[in-house]
Amino acid sequence: MGALRLLLVALALYVSCVACASMPRKKLAGPPEDFDLHDMPDPEEGTISSNSAMVSVDLDGPSSSRVGAEYSWSAQLPCDADNSLVLTFLSPVEGLVLALTDPSGNQVPLASLATPTTFPLDTIEVPATSYTIPNPINGVYKVEVTGSDDVIKASDLAALATSDPDAFIMWFNDNYDVVLNTQLTTYSLTVGSDMGVAAYVSDAPSNRLGARMFADSIASAEMTITFPNGSEYTENMYDDGLHADADPNDGIYGAVFVPTRTGSYTMQSTLCGKTGDSVFIRSTQHLVTVVQDNAEYTGQATATVSSDTITVSLELTSPPAATYKAYAEVWSGDVSVCWIGGVVDVTGTTATQVVQLEIDVQWLVLAGLTTSSPLSLRNVRLQDLETSIPVSLHDDIPVQIPAAHAATLQRVLLSTPVPAFITEKMRVGARPLMFTPEYVANTTGQVGSTVFLHGYCSKTNPWSDSGYAFADPYFFLNPGASVSHDTFANLVNTFATANNLQSYSLVAHSQGGPVSVHLGNYYWSGLDTTLPSQGRIIQSVGSPYQGCSGAGSLAGIGKLFGIACGTNHDLTVDGSKLWLAGISLYFRQKTYFYTTTYKRNQFFGDYCNLPINSVLNWPNDGTSELTRTVLPGAYNVGNTEQWCHTTGMKYKPQCSDPKRNAEINKNAAR
Question: Which of 51, 376, 415, 452 has its CA 20 to 30 A from that of 548?
Answer without folding.
Answer: 452
